[in-house]
């Protein structure tokens, strides 16, 4: 386990953990999701890009662990539990609430940039437009995000996670 992981860990998430990948991206972590590549290619990616692998595959876990890299095999099965387990495994103590941490697209891992809400008026529901100041667009898939109920729900989850990271 290298200290280089601590500041800005980057992840690769193995099959069956797609929702975990989405959440990590929304928390601001560079996170790849690989559901359909061979173990050999996945190992190559982990080693070359210095990514932390999160996997449910015990055999793959042991193969990577023997190479001395940080690989996480969650024992919890609930999404919140898995997130707490892997963030603790990376010695992360706190994640800023959104929109502060909102820098990556949950769908594709692309970077987000801030846009004037008037420029995305057609993509924001009519009833939320008046209540927001800023919107965010993905540089890759062009999806638009705004500070609405979805973000409030993620912040409730983040508060629970932050509480558990401290204890
Ligand atoms: Zn995107």
Automatic annotation (TrEMBL):
It comes from the Archaea. Pfam families: Mut7-C. Residues 11-155 form the Mut7-C RNAse domain. InterPro entries: Mut7-C_RNAse_dom. This is Mut7-C RNAse domain-containing protein. It comes from Candidatus Nitrosocosmicus franklandianus.
